[in-house]
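Tutorial, part two.
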Amino acid sequence: MADSWVNSAERIGADLHLDLSGAGSRRAALMGALRDAVRSGRLAPGTRLPPYRSLAADLGVARNTVADAYAELVAEGWLTARQGSGTRVAERVGPPAPGRVPKKGPVRAHGPRHDLRQGTPDASSFPRADWAAAYRRALQAAPNEAFGPGDPQGRFELREALTEYLARARGVRTEPDRIVICSGFAHALRLLFGGRVLRGPLAVESYGLGFHREILTAAGVRTLPLTLDEHGARVGELTAGTGRARAALLTPAHQFPTGGPLHAERRTAAVDWARARGGLIVEDDYDGEFRYDRRPVGAVQGLDPERVVYVGSVSKSLSPALRLGWMVLPRELVGDVVAVKGEREAWASVPDQLALADFLVSGAYDRHVRRMRQRYRGRRDRLVEALAQRAPGVAATGIAAGLHAVLRLPPGTERSVVKAATWGGVALDGLAEFRHPQATMPHTDGLVVGYSTPSDHAYGAALDALCGVLPPD
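Running the prediction step on this input gives:
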């Protein structure tokens, strides 16, 4: 009977005696009481705290008060939170040694307290149970030869599943034999340009990921920036100042990082240029699945499969840890790309490929994307509401789709705001970080804020910290 009581207590968390008297808000009083309990040793490292709903009921405070206090103390390093394990006192935080005066303030974890960098999905939302089930089914159904040397083109099961999914969800026109599996977009660039399947000069958008440009530079590819406006890349420049380009790298579904889809007329114009030039478009389907306030925008590849290399991955929709992506290639390039990969698959795990195939065919991928679309839309809405209340002079743009927003700042303030955010423990990027070094379009001061990165538990505190460093008006 005693063992049963102990196990039950472990599941629900320990009862806490906390004194919330004193000046200040209930949230501040709760955070102070918890810090004191940890500092004094009354709450030992590893102690599991009650769920925030239970503690809120015990203390007679709002649930959000407890949730925000927990999130802030996790960010400060006093507590840890892990899905399935609850909120616990951090192992590295203990009572002061005898005779020593405790340091003022919290002991902070390494790295930023609040991570609002772009490009990473909420790691706590990875569908562990559904993925494990897909993995088990895939391994049980796999033929023996699947556990031998991998086909560099990728498992047929996954290429077949992708053919159906991409046609249905993204308007891609292909067959399994035109798909080559890779480990993500960066790997695709290395295969296409590092392997000399495609050559430069390459037209790129004036704002984009710097490490993609580094990959291209390392491959000896010269990049020529295209101007951006509210309709996306000005592809008319392909026949003007960047007319020497042999290919163009575009993010038509959601321009990274400024946001917004490539206008329909410009999509058609880009394909017409590729046909007339004998060139190719490399389509990075960035954030293609995550749209909120507009109808889905299909892939440019559907306009001409022989003039577009379509590249996608699960890095944003599932996890970058899976290292799974795909290239949908013009038929004439398939053999060249497979030859660059080599005789055996050296990048994408075959069991992971089989699991993703099952995940797609079973419908689990669609369900996960719909669930995360709703969650990220809620995150975006909370960001917009927080700005309206606390920094009304800062507008959020590029928010109809994707996992990040661009916050427009008054001219000349970007560098100081980024510096203030760093000092305040908030990790984010200035818009200038993504600007092509040869871009001629006017620079706009701004921040690139990823609202998908923090867990739900930590998001409120991250927004508070962000608004604290923004210009109020």
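The two ends are 61 Å apart (CA to CA). In part three we will examine how such features are distributed along the chain.
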